[in-house]
Amino acid sequence: MRHTHVDLTSILTQPNPQVDLRLQAYEISTGNFLKAVTNYTHRAIAEITKHRNAQDADKRRLAERTQAVEAETNQCKLKEIELLAVLAKEQEETRDSEQSVAALKRQLASIRELCISIDSEIEQYRAIVSNLQREKEGEHRVLNEHAAQLEPELAACESWLRCHIEGIEADQLLIRFSHLDEANVDREFSFVLDVSTPSYNVITTTPPLPSLPILLNDLNETRDIYHFIKLTRSAFSDLLRGQS
């Protein structure tokens, strides 16, 4: 709406002075202004509401994010506590393992020292065994020499006593007599003498000989095996005469 210039002088000269205020145009202009203000207000309110809603949404998202971060932080703290516990356990196991390894190393060192000591003892025993073997071989040679020297005497004894002497097992002698029974010169009278221990022992006699304990006692006192054989033959002869 355009503003027009009012000429007051000409108006006042009129018989009925009137001023055209153009109220209708004013009302239209005012209405348009009010509409514009109302529209602006509505747009402003809508924009403010939009921003407020956006801010509320941002606040909710921020709150949710904050809660999520707090929950994640709490989980991380719990995980950290668990990891610290695992680390402490592993450190304890490591210490135990180190102590076990140290103990095993000490045991290994002790075993090695023991092995060295045992090896030394083995060498000593080997030397002793070697010496004993040489001594045994020497004794065996001496015994063979004595046996060779005694063979004629043994043959004479066997011939005179009508007996036969033979080894049947280690350190056991079988002595068999013949020509004791005139009715049966081949009838055997025998006994097995065990010389494996310092105290001689007769394992068995054929036939049983009641006087054997006395003869054995005399043998262990005199250590004279040939004399024992003679006495045993005489005892068998006495036994045979007692049965006649």
Gyration radius from CA atoms, angstroms: 69 Å
Q: Outline, from the CA principal axes?
A: rod-shaped
Mean pLDDT across all amino acids: 83
SS summary, helix count: 4
Describe the strand arrangement of the main beta sheet, using strand numbers.
1-2-3-4
Share of β-strand residues: 5-15%
Helix content: over 70%
Brief summary:
It contains 4 helices and 4 strands, in the order ααββββαα. It has 244 residues and is of the alpha+beta class.
How is this structure best described in words?
Component of the NDC80 complex. It is found in: Nucleus; Chromosome, Centromere, Kinetochore. It is a single chain. Helix 3 (212-222) packs antiparallel against helix 4 (225-243). The protein has helices spanning 8-12, 23-161, 212-222, 225-243; strands at 163-169, 172-177, 189-194, 201-206. Among the domains are: 69-153; 162-242, Copper Amine Oxidase, Chain A, domain 1. The protein has 244 residues and is α+β, with helices and mostly antiparallel strands. The model has no long low-confidence stretch (mean pLDDT 83).
Layout: helices, strands, pairs:
Layout: H1 8-12, H2 23-161, E1 163-169, E2 172-177, E3 189-194, E4 201-206, H3 212-222, H4 225-243
Antiparallel strand pairs: 1-2, 2-3, 3-4
Helix pairs in contact: 3-4
What are the main properties of this structure?
244 residues; alpha+beta; Copper Amine Oxidase, Chain A, domain 1; 4-stranded antiparallel β-sheet; 4 helices; 4 strands; 71% helix; rod-shaped
